[in-house]
Amino acid sequence: METSFLSATILLILITDPLGNIPLFITALKQVKPERRKHVVLRECLIAFTVLLIFMFFGRDFLEVMHLTDESVRIAGGVILFLIAIKMIFPGEGSVFGGDHMHSEPFIVPIAIPLILAPSAMATVLLMSTREPTRMLEWVGALTLCMLVTTVVFLFSGKLQKLLGEQAITALERLMGLVLTAIAIEMLLGGIASYIRQFH
Question: Measured between alpha carbons, how far is 45 from 40 in angstroms, rounded to an integer?
Fold first, then answer.
């Protein structure tokens, strides 16, 4: 499946799921003073962006050190995306915070990791960079655009939640989960097909 700049951007936005994470994000910032929230959002998004860039540029070296093939990363990425998508469509009880209550300003956890920087996001940028390293500028652009969207959504999370309402946000998350399921299956089948072709 040929991945374009637009499809890569949309995929990354679906994976980071900023709209679906609005309620969790607001919960994480409950104990943060209003005047500090913008600073926290920018800091956490920058941390997530930096880590994803590191994965993107040094992903191939990481695979070589760990003796992992592109096919294994594609299959693993497909499985992770599928699990994330299923959880988006059929959310269970509990939260991404593991039941802990936030009593101080969040730092890295839980906003940068795992709200933005989920394993599926790391697997996706790793896959992009290893499959088509010659298009690295496109992937960096797609990641940058995705992080800008995430930052804007988080900055205006309170207003968006009031404007759309929880039901609309939930419906959007279900729709994103459905699209992400199809992408995950496509990635999984592509990895399996590529692995099988090695023996022919």
Answer: 8
Helix axes 136-155, 119-131, angle to 10 degrees: 160
Residue 192 CA, distance from chain mean position: 23
117 and 51 in contact (C-beta within 8 Å)? yes
Selection from 168, 199, 174, 151 nearest residue 86 by Cα: 174
Residues spanned by the domain of 54 = 5-93+105-197
**11 contact partners, CB below 8 Å, separation of at least 6:** 3, 124, 183
Span 75-118, pLDDT tens digits: 877 787 788 778 778 876 544 444 444 456 778 877 887 778 87
DSSP letters for 87-143: HHHS--SS-TTTTPPP-S--BSBTIIIIIIS-HHHHHHHHHHHHH-GGGHHHHHHHH
Q: Are 113 and 123 in contact, with CB atoms under 8 Å apart?
A: no
In a domain, 120, yes or no: yes
Q: How many other C-beta atoms are found inside a 10 Å radius of the C-beta of residue 155?
A: 15
- Domain count of the fold of the chain: 1
Q: What is the pLDDT of residues 47-84, one digit of tens each?
A: 999 999 998 998 778 778 888 777 777 787 778 778 87
Take residue 199 and report the two structure tokens written for it. 């023996």
Q: What is the CATH number of the domain that holds 81?
A: 1.20.1250
Residue 32 is given by DSSP the state S
